Amino acid sequence: MKYKLTHNTMTTEDGIVLHRIQAFRNIGKDVKAGELGGWIEKKGNLSQYGKCWVRNNAKVAGKARVCGNAGVYGKAYIYDNA
């Protein structure tokens, strides 16, 4: 596993509960073990493989999935079937 869901949560305007993520190990050159990431609804939103990561205040929810080497950052909100 490369990350875990923390107990730190937030609720979107749509009522979806998101969890902040935390890296278990270094991911590529930019993410260090222990670093907090952005927000996801469930583990299925962010792949445990590759260098993909959600940073800062970015959010991923619904059936959206971040995988490969994709990065989601800033104030981005990825949701539905993206």
- Mean pLDDT over the residues: 96
- The global form is globular
Largest sheet: 5 strands, mixed
C-alpha termini separation: 23 Å
Total individual domains: 1
Helix amount = under 10%
Query: Low-confidence stretches at least 5 residues in length (pLDDT < 50)?
Result: none
Helix and strand succession? EEEEEEE
User: What's the Cα radius of gyration?
Assistant: 11 Å
The fraction of residues in strands falls at 35-45%
Can you list the strand order of the major beta sheet? 1-2-3-5-7
The assembly state of the depicted protein chains is single chain
Q: Structural class, from helix and strand content? A: mainly beta
Helix segment tally: 0
- Counting DSSP E segments of at least 2 residues, the number of strands comes to 7
Description:
The protein has one domain. A five-stranded mixed β-sheet has the order 1-2-3-5-7, with no helix packed on it. A two-stranded parallel ribbon has the order 4-6. It is an all-beta fold and 82 residues long. The chain contains no helices and seven strands. The chain is 0% helix and 35% strand. The termini are far apart. Strand 1 and strand 2 form a beta hairpin.
Please give a quick description of this structure.
The protein has 82 residues and is mainly beta. The protein has one domain (3-78).
Question: How do the helices and strands line up, and which of them pair or pack?
Answer:
Layout: E1 3-11, E2 17-23, E3 36-40, E4 53-54, E5 59-60, E6 71-72, E7 77-78
Parallel strand pairs: 3-5, 4-6, 5-7
Antiparallel strand pairs: 1-2, 2-3
